[in-house]
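Model: Ready when you are.
Researcher: Fold this.
Model:
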Amino acid sequence: MEKEKYYITTAIAYTSAKPHIGNTYEIVLADAIARYKRQMGYDVFFQTGTDEHGQKIEEKAKEAGVSPQEYVDKIAAEIKRIWDLMNTSYDKFVRTTDKEHEKKVQKIFRKLYNQGDIYKGVYEGWYCTPCESFFTESQLKEGKCPDCGREVKKAKEEAYFFRMSKYQKRLEEYIESHPHFIEPISRKNEMVNNFLKPGLQDLCVSRTSFKWGVPVDFDPKHIIYVWIDALTNYITFIGYDPEGSTEQFKKLWPANLHLIGKDILRFHTIYWPILLMALDLPLPEQIFGHPWLLMSNDKMSKSKGNVIYADDLVEYFGVDAVRYYLLHEIPFSSDGNITYELLIERINGDLANVLGNLVQRTISMAKKYFNKKVEYKGRKEDLDDELITQINNLRDKIDEKMKTLEVAESISVIFEVLRASNKYIDETTPWILAKEENKKERLETVLYHLLESIRVCAIKLEPFLPSTSQEILRQLNTEDKTEQLNLNNKYELNDPEVLFARIDKETFLA
């Protein structure tokens, strides 16, 4: 039977500078969802990459004394290095300076022009270079960019425009009839009330004041504006072509999920769907605007100097500890916060104490009492029922949470079972059972339940903490992937090893 496809994308990272931990959160979140879907039997295609054109990059390259291509090559390599460091399982890493992509962008622009959706005019308004966005006088906040708060420049230039207003009603009706198209609901309401209902202005889609971008092939002094160039990555790299698309495109499109930061939601939930409507393509199933990761409750910004980088954190704490923090500490729809203190507390409390301690204690007891060989002896008592029920319900509980992308909650459900397993050790007192010869089979049954709990939790942890999951299963020396209690395993365990070492917070922060 053919697997059901699942196409997931992230926003493509802008190659103006090295990504900080807030940027990295998105790729780790997408990776957890992609890995989970693979585990559930989907044929997953996970695409990410870099957005490499624009005035800002032209300026940065000039400051650095290199060509724009050299500049983006260096930053794109750095972004890919960090995505790989975080153990993300993307299927395709795209770059918008790819020549095939550029040709397709030109074809898309020409198609929209030929069908009357793009026309030539003159743009006059305010421009924010960091955001690559134009604003009207009324959209400015205290005379500054409404998105980033920086200075804006008066701009007047010949430009091509896209007829957004032509598709406004159709988009409103679509959002109304597809309640899960934009999630979470707070973001949907914001888009509809703040941007759609007041009325859409036609969108400026070309520039003449810089050169670093894809030229309009029939009017080469114009550069195709970043949004058409960047947003179309979701279709061009899987085989879309206005002159005839590939089988891969027909299989994968529409995307099941676009995962993006809430700050670029407008472009993905208004500009992008309208662009797709104009191309007569189906809209993605869902666009999820994830929250931000704040640094000491403040938005990370390189200009403020309050930035933490993923590779620095990994050097101190390891990949899975950083993944755990990102995935578990940022709620479904509200901003999360990161500080070294909070990170250390989580590593010590959850990863070292709850998870690491359970695995080490259980395997150590199996080694001490049964020379690392444990099988089910059938000496079950009523006391065991609660833990067994939790183990057997784990898959369904996680599935329920992941259907609505509640990743943090899914991890919490696994840790509930791990905590219950630690409690089960205290309640069954294996060290006391070990003193009585006639309780040997009961002791082995208790340890078997614990090993099974650890095994099932390790399997379900794989999307979130892939290396840790692998290491636990290695220590258990098992390849059994059954996601419920299996009474037929015969464990021959490896020696226990520390999964997460406790960190002395005072020493670290000194």
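Researcher: Now this one.
Model:
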Amino acid sequence: MKKKGSVVEFTQQRNEELLSAFREQLSFLGELPLEQIFTRASLSPASRFWVSERRAMVVMSHMMKGDQLLSMNQKRREMFYEIFRRVKELLRLEPSLTLTEASFRAVNSPAPEFYLTPKSARVLIYRLRA
């Protein structure tokens, strides 16, 4: 699992996208409670999955062997299951791909959401706006 305090090279890009999604939700929604705006921002599409290619490949390898990721929090598990679905589809369409190549492509494809809880999104946004 990820080591506490580890920093990933795309953290700044993720933070900028999340803050942009938050601001976009603010401009569209007007009078909604702030918690709903955090929820909508966290559910906004992202340019990629916010996990390193290497970590995704390791998790995909575990999932191929039957690991159900039960010790992982729900949002992370959802994210990895979506990546796994895409990896399996890539491998089906292009059998010559390696698991590493398929994982790389899947992680770097657009993600349907940030895979953050509203509470995590709120903490990040408040930290970024400070």
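Researcher: Key takeaway?
Model: Residues 1-7 have pLDDT under 50 and may be disordered.
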